[in-house]
Specification:
Elements (H helix, E strand, L loop, with lengths): L2 E5 L3 H12 L5 E5 L15 H4 L11 H4 L2 E3 L4 E5 L2 E4 L2 E4 L2 E4 L3 E3 L8 E2 L3 H10 L5 E5 L3 H12 L3 E6 L11 H4 L3 H6 L3 E4 L3 E5 L2 E4 L4 E3 L2 E4 L3 E3 L15 E3 L10 E3 L4 E5 L4 E3 L4 H15 L11 E6 L2 E7 L6 E5 L8 E6 L5 E7 L2 H13 L5 H4 L16
Parallel strand pairs: 1-2, 1-7, 2-3, 7-19, 9-16, 10-11, 10-16, 11-12, 18-20
Antiparallel strand pairs: 4-5, 5-6, 8-17, 13-14, 14-15, 20-21, 22-23, 23-26, 24-25, 25-26
């Protein structure tokens, strides 16, 4: 291949560039990014940047050393086999990495802030002033982190959630309900079962006809893969760019990585939408290997973390509806606790750990291996998660 183009200059795009060079690719390399900023980390945007603990999430990046032609403020607009159209012209390619990420799900109406980019975070932080009335729509990972920052800045915060409990996109109600008391303890009003019909610059309209006023509305109800520019191209899409475990798309010499993908997982026999930092960090190495003709696959146990209301929350795995949950610690009483999803034969499929990072690390390894555990031992916080497999057959 004489020229490889990487579409998307976020973490996944940067990691693809690093991986290609690290795996021996010596041809022309072009990195195209829609934003004017060099590659940066997104997790700090809703955490350290909003809190005021950090200003610069820029990733270490030496374009000269990597011999990459960086074209920022350049948006991919269309795709044909061998050609990538951008708003600055057409780029021919022999190999292509699609890493255009995701974009926020938007609600009807105007005037709300959607947190996705570095500029979004800086603009939002400037408006989080003591005494301001802030409405956050969505009690998922991002909504909780925005509420945390707003409360820390002295804002009067209300979080509106359509579901009955927080984090329903990832957690069942029996787990998510334990997140609800954290809001009140932080001085944040949480209103569940509230569907927002429209957002306005000065508040929101609820589906039941009520209108709530605020000086600032922030929406965090999820993201969707940034694939609108690929519609009509003929490339296979399935709630994201459809890729196999090798991250190859339906076209030869075109791979995809990061938030934009919907990857087939042999482990779970379904498509996985990663949408998290861990995928953007790790998947590009496999995408690069596939592009260079090597036989590698990417099929990890999914992982995400959140920092909200003074708690470190980690979640890993992909539970099935039939799995049962066992608890390690009492969420109603203990400051730190974990919950584990087990199959009928006591194999660990997923876990959530609140303030228990060791549980997460060990549990994620067991989920990856698919081994059986002793469910009774697992409920004892004094026993390491790893020790619960002692004497059991895998």
């Amino acid at each position: 291949m004489e020229r490889v183009v990487v579409a998307g200059a976020g973490l996944a795009g940067l990691q693809a560039v690093i991986a290609l060079r690290g795996q021996g690719y010596s041809g022309e390399l072009v990195l195209v990014g829609a934003e004017p900023h060099p590659p940066y980390n997104r997790p700090p945007l809703s955490k350290a940047v909003l809190l005021g603990d950090a200003d610069d999430p820029t990733l270490p990046f030496d374009a000269a050393a990597l011999k990459v032609d960086v074209r920022l403020d350049t948006t991919a607009t269309d795709l044909r086999e061998g050609e990538l159209d951008t708003d600055a012209g057409t780029l021919a390619y022999d190999g292509l990495v699609i890493a255009t990420g995701a974009e926020p799900v938007r609600l009807p109406g105007d005037g709300a802030i959607y947190l996705r980019t570095r500029d979004d975070a800086v603009a939002l932080r400037s408006r989080l002033q003591a005494g301001e009335r802030v409405i956050v729509v969505g009690a998922g990972w991002i909504g909780a982190e925005v509420a945390t920052a707003a409360a820390r800045h002295g804002c009067r915060v209300t979080v509106l959630e359509q579901a009955a409990t927080p984090v329903t996109h990832a957690l069942p109600a029996e787990v998510g309900r334990h997140f609800a008391p954290w809001y009140a303890a932080a001085g944040v009003e949480l209103l569940c079962g509230q569907r927002v019909a429209a957002v306005r610059p000065d508040g929101v309209d609820l589906a039941d006809g009520r209108r709530l006023s605020a000086s600032l509305v922030v929406v965090g109800v999820g993201v969707r893969p940034a694939t609108s520019w690929l519609e009509g191209s003929g490339l296979a899409l399935d709630h994201g760019v459809a890729v196999g475990p090798d991250l190859l798309t339906s076209w030869p010499a075109v791979v995809a990585a990061g938030d934009v993908t919907a990857r087939w997982s042999p482990r779970y026999a379904t498509r996985i939408r990663g949408e998290h930092w861990d995928d953007a960090l790790r998947a590009p190495a496999v995408a690069a290997a596939t592009l260079l003709g090597r036989d590698e696959t990417y099929d990890p146990v999914p992982y995400v973390w959140s920092e909200q209301f003074g708690r470190f929350v980690q979640y890993a795995g992909h539970p099935a509806a039939s799995d049962r949950i066992v608890w390690r610690g009492d969420p109603d009483r203990d400051p730190s606790w974990s919950a584990f999803w087990l199959t009928g034969d006591d194999r660990l499929t997923a876990l959530i750990a609140v303030g228990r990072p060791r549980d997460l690390v060990q549990g994620r390894r067991l989920a990856d291996r698919g081994v059986r555990v002793d469910a009774e031992l697992l409920t004892d916080p004094a026993v390491s998660v790893q020790a619960t497999v002692a004497g059991l057959a895998g």
